[in-house]
Design a protein that fits this description.
Layout (H helix, E strand, L loop, with lengths): L18 E4 L9 H10 L3 E5 L1 E3 L5 E3 L4 H15 L15 E6 L2 E8 L20 E4 L2 E4 L2 H11 L19 H14 L10 H8 L2 E3 L5 E3 L1 H7 L2 H7 L5 E5 L9 E4 L9 H15 L5 E3 L2 E3 L3 H15 L9 E5 L3 E7 L6 H6 L8 H9 L9 H11 L6 E5 L4 E7 L9 H13 L2 H13 L12 H4 L3 H13 L3 E3 L8 E3 L3
Parallel strand pairs: 1-2, 11-15
Antiparallel strand pairs: 2-6, 3-4, 5-6, 7-8, 9-10, 11-12, 13-14, 15-16, 16-18, 17-18, 19-20
Length: 497
């Protein structure tokens, strides 16, 4: 997180979603702990004491002196370790730094993003009134719904594993179960569970558990995957699935599929395959030729199956507004309730899988859908790059928490001049292997709208400054980044899509 503050760049900084300044003229500000909670519960950030933001958003020091340092820091650390003030101390001494600016000092506090097991981070011994999150340049108090969502995400046994003893297996749709079993058989015909009866099979895959009465009852995952919609909403009142196809601008919907229609089961299994088939019918995906044979199941098909499954297994079915998938001629938008458990940066980076609904993930894995290595999103970006489509966009919204993935099937803007085309071909050759991974690391790390300097990427990439300069220059030429147009103090940010 040290890249968020460099004293030599002080004059260029402004408040944003990861930087907050406090005057601290009268000592340690009370609002400091609101910002601490907000940053810990969001993406982390820095809080700077001894700074005032002016009307033009520039910063100036407020007159803290070296003589104020000991008193402020003693007060700070006493409160940081006081459970009546803050629920957990995430900081160590290396996270707090003091800098001198002419005759004044500033105190920079680096707040890490809390792990999901540590959230919610709250203040004043009041979880429901003292939990904050951060959006843009402000801290806001979380709603009880958001706090409960963080509490659900704390536990290793995900909520879909819970047994629902108020229901029996009659809530399952038998046709859905048999359709699932047929897909399992087609994927792995020799699986040892193939010859089990339905009840024992449902027990094995995690769709049912033995209750205190010695009888089988559905789990949350079983109800979501195999239940009828009217039974599902009895346990998950906010459950809602919605697919909207908008291929003709003169018609509001060219096709729509809702779980509430009563015309089909409304469960996740049926929704997944109905929607997937609609998506691939409308997306112009180039087929491949292997050994003279046409191969219709391409990497794009597999990526679409993966992102659709990820949407379902990472949804928080206790949060309003449900799952919404919107498709027009060139754009596919996939929305699910709930935040990204590993964080957006780690999601893009890959290598860490932490599904919100582990039992649902297992059920999809058994029929050959989804993966557990956390590599799905980086692979998605690579496939879109190969197709020369515009880069996927991942967004998080709050209150209520929501994750939105936007996939474009439009080609990137082509270079106009022959000279640029030649340069582009050279870049494409360079972009294989290690260089391409370095591009991905840079782009995954960067947030839209935020400026970065060369030094921000040296530790991330583990290369020298000159190599970083070369990579950033190539990304500018490739229209992935834009720079601020100066030689000294050059900065970069993501190009708008």
């Amino acid at each position: 997180m040290n890249n968020l503050f460099d004293i030599t760049e002080f004059d260029s900084y402004k408040e944003d979603n990861r930087r907050e300044v406090k005057k601290a003229k009268g000592g340690l500000p009370v609002s400091l702990w609101e910002s601490y909670s907000a940053m810990a519960n969001t993406y982390g950030g820095i809080i700077i004491l001894g700074i005032q933001e002016l009307s033009d958003r520039s910063w100036k020091t407020t007159g803290l002196k070296i003589s104020d340092k000991e008193k402020i820091l003693d007060n700070f650390w006493n409160q940081a370790h006081n459970l009546q003030k803050v629920s957990i101390n995430l900081l160590n001494e290396d996270d707090v730094n003091v800098y001198e600016i002419q005759d004044d000092i500033i105190i920079v506090i680096h707040v890490p993003m809390a792990k999901r097991e540590q959230k919610p981070v709250y203040i004043n011994n009041d979880m429901f009134k003292g939990t904050y999150k951060r959006t843009h340049t402000g801290d806001y108090r979380c709603t009880p719904l958001q706090v409960k969502a963080m509490l659900r995400d704390q536990i290793e046994e995900t909520m879909d594993m819970a047994i629902i003893e108020s229901m029996d297996l009659s809530v399952f749709d038998i046709e859905t179960i048999h359709a699932y079993r047929n897909r399992h058989r087609a994927f792995r015909a020799a699986h040892p569970w193939m010859n089990l009866d339905d009840d024992q099979y449902l027990l094995k895959i995690g769709a049912a558990k033995l209750g205190k009465d010695g009888k089988l009852h559905p789990t949350g995952a079983g109800l979501l995957m195999f239940g009828e919609e009217y039974n599902i909403v009895n346990y998950y009142p906010e459950y809602f699935l919605d697919y909207r196809e908008m291929l003709d601008p003169t018609i509001r919907w060219t096709d729509r599929l809702q779980s509430t229609s009563g015309e089909w089961t409304g469960n996740l299994f049926d929704f997944y395959f109905r929607v997937y088939n609609k998506i691939i019918r409308n997306v112009k995906i180039p087929f491949k030729i292997v050994g003279g044979d046409r191969i219709d199941d391409t990497p794009v098909h597999r990526a679409l199956r993966e992102v659709l499954a990820n949407c379902l297994v990472n949804a928080d079915f206790y949060i309003p507004r449900g799952i919404v998938i919107k498709q027009d001629n060139d754009i596919l938008t996939i929305e699910n309730p709930g935040s990204i458990r590993v964080g957006k940066y780690q999601m893009k980076l890959g290598g860490e899988s932490d599904p919100r609904n582990k039992a649902l993930m297992k059920m999809f894995n058994l029929i050959g859908i989804g993966e557990r290595a956390g590599s799905g999103v980086p692979e998605l970006f690579s496939i879109w790059e190969e197709q020369q489509w515009k880069e996927p966009i991942i967004e998080e919204k709050m209150n209520p928490d929501r994750t939105i993935l936007t996939l474009s099937f439009q080609k990137k803007v082509r270079e106009k001049s022959a000279r640029k085309k030649v340069r582009e071909k050279k870049r494409e050759k360079k972009s294989s292997g290690k260089t391409f991974k370095q591009y991905e690391q840079i782009l995954s790390y960067m947030e839209y709208g935020q400026w970065y300097k060369v030094k921000d990427f040296i530790d991330i990439l583990g290369v020298k400054e000159r190599r970083v300069q070369t990579l950033l220059k190539e990304l500018v030429e490739n229209e992935k980044l834009i720079d601020n147009g100066v030689t000294k103090g050059k900065r970069y940010k993501k190009a708008n899509k």
